[in-house]
Design brief:
Elements lengths: L1 H26 L2 E3 L18 E3 L9 H7 L7 E3 L7 E2 L12 E3 L7 E2 L12 E3 L21 E3 L18 E3 L5 E2 L5 H9 L3 E3 L6 E3 L15 H6 L6 H28 L5 H24 L2 H7 L8 H21 L4 H17 L11 H7 L1
Parallel strand pairs: 1-2, 2-3, 3-5, 4-6, 5-7, 7-8, 8-9, 9-11, 10-12
Helix pairs in contact: 8-9
Length: 370
């Protein structure tokens, strides 16, 4: 009785699963256009196609091909093996949300633009083998959130940083001229600390420098200097986040500065700057001549002089005599000394000719007046 009840309860679920599998098998549509000498992707393919093979043609995957691909929304597998693809443009596979396998091996790909794999959220296998890729930015793989297999075999890659692929299980890197200097340390750390399997590890060898040619890229013995140049795996994520924040802040500031410099008219700051420079130069010259040529200000420091008038001489004599008498009254000295001082003062007044001795008085004029 219990068994019967259980069967009754789970029977609708079982039937729905069978129905989904049958519908999946029925909706799988394969289109094989290999070795047709096509230079463009045909536009008259069944829109319900799920597996499309365009290998061994002359397709370049240009703008027109990209627009045609956008029509096949149900594609789960796309094969473009041995065509004439040179560059993967941004949004080359934008509408292929259901794509799980993408194979573009044996082409002439040299450049993969940022955003080339946008929209491939369900992609699990990516084959880029035997192309002419020289440099590869690992950030282009960010949209591939569930990628499990990445094949980069047989390219011209000498340096490759650790890609941000959390679900990657297998990576193929042999057949590239790897430069095993310190720059490859992050990739080695990632290969040794993650669960990713490096296929054909024994033949994924270093090409540079010569002393490391016998090592696999996964077993290169790096020295302490390399570890000091590159962050450890523990702090790598923090370093990347900090670097991205600082770069974005710097770029925004630089963009604002450039935008302001482009749109705002030039003011009169240059005129002010010229005035400041001229003022500094003139002041420096004045100070230089003042130090090197001090004769000119000696004249300014000298005092003006003139002949004393008669009433000025009398006033001077009275003042001087009064001053002497005050001294005699205040000082408590003997009479003899007082008499001597008075006589000296009196003789000085009688000999005075009404002029104050001045070194600037011309001797010739003094002689004429006498």
């Amino acid at each position: 009785m219990k068994t019967t009840c259980i069967l009754i309860l789970f029977w609708p679920l079982y039937m729905s699963l069978l129905t989904d599998e049958s519908q999946t098998s029925k909706t799988e549509v394969k289109c094989n256009f290999t070795e047709k000498n096509y230079s463009l992707i045909p536009a008259d393919i069944n829109k319900d196609v799920t597996i499309l093979d365009l290998s061994y043609n002359q397709i370049t995957l240009n703008i027109r091909d990209i627009s045609v691909l956008q029509r096949y929304l149900l594609l789960t597998e796309l094969y473009l093996i041995e065509n004439n693809v040179v560059i993967l443009h941004k949004n080359s596979f934008g509408n292929l949300f259901n794509l799980k396998i993408l194979n573009i091996c044996r082409n002439s790909i040299r450049v993969i633009q940022q955003g080339a794999f946008i929209g491939l959220n369900k992609l699990k296998e990516l084959y880029l083998c035997q192309n002419k890729i020289l440099q590869l930015n690992p950030d282009i793989f960010v949209p591939l959130k569930i990628l499990k297999l990445l094949n980069l075999q047989g390219n011209l890659i000498s340096y490759f940083d650790a890609p941000p692929l959390l679900h990657l299980e297998l990576i193929i890197l042999y057949g590239n001229p790897w430069n095993c200097s310190c720059g490859l340390l992050n990739l080695q750390n990632w290969l040794n600390t993650s669960n990713v399997i490096l296929e054909n590890e024994n033949i994924t060898m270093c090409s540079y420098p010569d002393i490391l040619k016998s090592y696999s890229i996964k077993t290169v013995p790096y020295n302490a200097e390399c570890y000091s140049k590159f962050p450890s795996p523990i702090t790598e994520d923090l370093y990347i986040n900090f670097q991205s924040i600082s770069n974005s802040t710097f770029n925004s500031s630089l963009n604002n500065l450039t935008r302001n410099s482009e749109h705002e008219p030039l003011g009169k700051s240059w005129a002010f700057l010229v005035g400041v420079v001229v003022t500094v130069l003139i002041t420096s010259l004045i100070i230089f001549f003042a130090i090197k040529c001090p004769i000119w200000y000696n004249f300014l420091l000298s005092y003006n002089h003139h002949h004393l008038e008669e009433h000025e001489a009398d006033a001077y004599e009275d003042d001087f005599t009064g001053y002497a008498s005050s001294i005699s009254q205040i000082s408590d000295i003997n009479s003899e000394e007082t008499t001597v001082i008075f006589e000296q003062l009196h003789s000085f007044v009688e000999d005075d000719d009404g002029f104050i001795e001045d070194k600037y008085i011309d001797s010739h004029e003094l002689h004429e007046e006498n």
